[in-house]
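Input (structure):
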C-alpha cells in the first residue's frame, strides 16, 4: 500500500526526495521517492556513505518535495567512470 501511495504522491510532485549535491564530481543526485520526510531523512546516511566510498567530495544533502526529471544531473566535465559507478548505486536503491 505504501508503494502505491508513494507512486501517487510522486506523480503529483508531492513525494519527498533526498537531494545530494557534490562538487567532485559536479553532480546533483536524487534518491527517492518517499511518502514522508521522516523516511527520506532516515535514508540520507546510506546515500552519503555510498557517494563518499565512490570518492565524492563536498557533499551537501537536503530533503525536499519535488519531482525531478532526472535522477542524476551531471555538470560538463564529470568523469565517465564516476557516472557508471554512481548509476549502479542509484539503481540498487530503488
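Output (sequence):
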Amino acid at each position: 500500500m505504501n508503494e502505491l501511495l508513494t507512486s501517487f504522491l510522486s506523480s503529483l510532485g508531492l513525494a519527498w526526495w533526498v537531494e545530494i549535491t557534490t562538487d567532485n564530481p559536479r553532480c546533483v543526485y536524487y534518491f527517492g521517492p518517499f511518502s514522508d520526510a521522516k523516511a527520506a531523512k532516515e535514508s540520507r546516511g546510506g546515500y552519503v556513505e555510498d557517494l563518499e566510498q565512490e570518492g565524492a567530495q563536498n557533499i551537501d544533502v537536503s530533503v525536499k518535495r519535488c519531482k525531478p526529471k532526472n535522477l542524476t544531473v551531471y555538470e560538463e566535465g564529470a568523469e565517465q567512470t564516476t557516472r557508471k559507478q554512481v548509476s549502479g548505486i542509484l539503481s540498487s536503491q530503488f
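Notes: Helices lie at 2-12, 37-53, 80-93. Strands lie at 16-22, 27-34, 60-65, 72-74.
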